[in-house]
Amino acid sequence: MEEGLRERKKRETRRRISDMATGLFLMRGFDQVTVAEVARAADVSVNTVFNYFGTKEDLFLDRQADLEEIYRGIVRDRRPGESVVDAFRRDFLDALDTGDWRYGFHEGAEVWGRVVAESTALRARTLEIERQVMACVAAAIAEEVDADPEDVRPELVAEQILSTTRLLSRHALRRRAAGESPRETEAWLREQAGVLFGLLESGVGGYGRRPLVVAEDGEAAGDEEDDDVEGDHGRP
Amino acid sequence: MEEGLRERKKRETRRRISDMATGLFLMRGFDQVTVAEVARAADVSVNTVFNYFGTKEDLFLDRQADLEEIYRGIVRDRRPGESVVDAFRRDFLDALDTGDWRYGFHEGAEVWGRVVAESTALRARTLEIERQVMACVAAAIAEEVDADPEDVRPELVAEQILSTTRLLSRHALRRRAAGESPRETEAWLREQAGVLFGLLESGVGGYGRRPLVVAEDGEAAGDEEDDDVEGDHGRP
DNA sequence: CCACAATTTTGGAGTGACTGCAAGTTGGGT
DNA sequence: ACCCAACTTGCAGTCACTCCAAAATTGTGG
Questions:
Q1: So what CATH class is A64-202?
Q2: Options 2.60.40.10, 3.90.650.10, 1.10.10.60, 1.10.3720.10; which CATH number does A5-55 get?
Q3: Which of A120, B70, B135, B172 has the greatest number of beta carbons closer than 10 A?
Q4: Which PANTHER family does this one have (chains A, B) (predicted)?
Q5: What is the C-alpha separation between A148 and B60, in angstroms, rounded?
Q6: Which of B128, B199, B210 is nearest residue A124 as measured by Cβ atoms?
Q7: Cα angle B232-A135-B191, degrees, rounded to a multiple of 5
Q8: pLDDT tens, chain B, 236 aa long
């Protein structure tokens, strides 16, 4: 098991294919590059490409396994006094500091984001991956709180948290793509992370509540702009 | 514009193609039916099929426009005193009563769900549709509360609500597919809708909080089973 | 009823992802 | 050196989907 020549070659080949592919995709766009071209660039046959990667999309998106492992760790290793939401918020803010690839803050993320956004196939695969990661996080949470298999709450919590981070990442990419500077985007993200995670914690129950009594005949049903999410959930 | 012969024929053709397609898909599964077969069954050429439907998946899933309109209505027509979450909960419970198709409670929904679940292409398209519907709901909410275009909260609220209903539908389909009776599933759904929407309202902030002091050396970090989500959001 | 234009349908010839198979080629153990 | 297993390759084929130009159909004005 000393890492034979065979194993090394396999790893190298896989790597070479993946690198050539991502390079071409980033340069010319996903749909503008054929698998045959990738194969030629990596100096292998088309069949070999499909031997290593199940689909063309996987050539660009094959971090799913890593993601699942990392997220499992976040849930498992949360600190004393931390809820699951707390743990993910901390991780998100840390990632913001370190320019982690997961949330799309790293160098060149705008290009990557643009390539994904422009290809329906890649967008679809991204969603599917997110779904699977969600299921994985839900399982991790369920295991941690030792929940009944019938209990749906872990899934809900996972879904809520991941939609929050996904939302933040998406806006980050959009802003960077629109030409905003990394500094500005980071500041904005830090602020919005506070808002959104706060909303997550305290609940969205009151959002957009329509007033019981129509005001003075002025506007129909406007909301206060500043603090329209209150803690009261009682319904009359 | 008296509904000429031409328009009627077009509508009929489209309908015929769609019906034949869904029939075949439900009977034999999405991947086991080719577009050519659908075309033959509908007595048109393959090109005509693609003339009416952009992709094979759209032959099975073309309610998106309806969905968006309905959801817009739910947001717009919420009653006095109702928050957005309230409005969607009410709609969900109503749908449960009426066997509405949107959440997969109608007759034959298990078959439909199985067909979708078995095809990666259909699953992917479903996710993409859900994403677009989400964006639409977010826009509706933003418009209703007259939010700043920069404000991300409407998107978060939309995402949260729709993941809740989606979660409920998914479990409903799974249970029906597993052979549970409609009655049982409905009862379960009604109960879970209460739990999940409640969690949405009051926030998931405390979920899975790890205790500050490890208990007595018994188990490591278990949670109370009944009410592990409290209203306190303060972090120590 | 007859051109004539607009629209729809169709056939045919691609392209590109992906599969299955049979025939090489290569690495590792004997 | 020899063999087996794993890996690679070429080839033929399927299927979704596109582009284009030639019918076929429908609506319109004389």
A1: mainly alpha
A2: 1.10.10.60
A3: B172
A4: HTH-TYPE TRANSCRIPTIONAL REGULATOR BETI (PTHR30055:SF234), HTH-TYPE TRANSCRIPTIONAL REGULATOR RUTR (PTHR30055)
A5: 35
A6: B128
A7: 60
A8: 456 768 899 999 999 999 999 999 999 999 999 999 999 999 999 999 999 999 999 999 998 889 999 999 999 999 998 999 999 999 999 999 998 989 888 888 889 999 999 999 999 999 999 999 999 999 999 999 899 998 999 999 999 999 999 999 999 999 988 888 888 999 999 999 999 999 999 887 778 787 776 555 544 444 444 444 444 433 33
